[in-house]
Amino acid sequence: MAHEFYQIIVGAPSISLYSWKQLARWSVDYSCLSEKEKAEGHQILNSEWRKFCEGIVEKYGPIMAGDGEEVDDEKAKGVYRVRRGESS
User: Taking Cα atoms as reference points, which of 21, 17, 20 lies closest to residue 6?
Assistant: First the structure.
């Protein structure tokens, strides 16, 4: 990946988690793999993506605000204190 492309992807405010998944899917779609290998690649990607998302929800779900769109700063501080072994 060209450095400039990487900078755009990581720096663009419109890039979402879904955008990263789509980029990975396109990487498989437009690769030099055979159709069978592409299908296998998508199966692996889908399985690993599910695990990744479940891990994100498990790790960061407790610090989200009620709507799930923003981090609740007070919840986050409490969770991080517990993880560091500090008292609340």
Answer: 20
pLDDT digits (tens, 9 = 90+) for 47-88: 999 999 899 888 888 788 777 778 788 888 887 777 777 765
pTM of the entire predicted model: 0.64
| Closest listed residue to residue 43, CA positions, set 18, 25, 61 | 25
Q: Where are the domains of the chain?
A: 3-83
The CA-to-CA distance between both ends of the chain, in Å, stands at: 44
In the numeric block, the tokens 């517990």 are attached to 82
Handedness of CA 38, 40, 42, 44 (dihedral sign): negative
DSSP letter at 71 equals B
